[in-house]
Amino acid sequence: MVNNAQRAAGEKRKSVGFLAVFSNLPFMLLWLGQLTSQMADRIFVYVLMVVIYQATHSNFGVSLPLLAFGIPSVLIAPWAGVLADRLDRKGILVVSDVIRGLLILLIIPLITKSLLWIFLVSLLA
User: Which residue ranges does UniProt annotate as crossing the membrane (predicted)?
Assistant: First the structure.
């Protein structure tokens, strides 16, 4: 049963569509930046797997970079959540994206046909 206060509160709320969130410029810029960053990461992982498979013709060789991406997030996630709650979230986003970009730039000179370099590239990623 709905009382008068709940009915009045319901009448005051407006129905806001999904696209209304994009009218908030800071949110839109954050969303577009993270979308771009995530897409670049996924493309990088795909290209890395293709390069490693072409160099090694080994499924095991392709699995190593996937482990290199997955294991740190599993090990660090419990503490990262606590730190993210205590620190400035905008600063965390900026610092993590800058560090990730610098690590990607370190990979560029390392791309060769040598198997050793391929595994170093996957560890840097």
Answer: 15-32, 62-82, 102-124
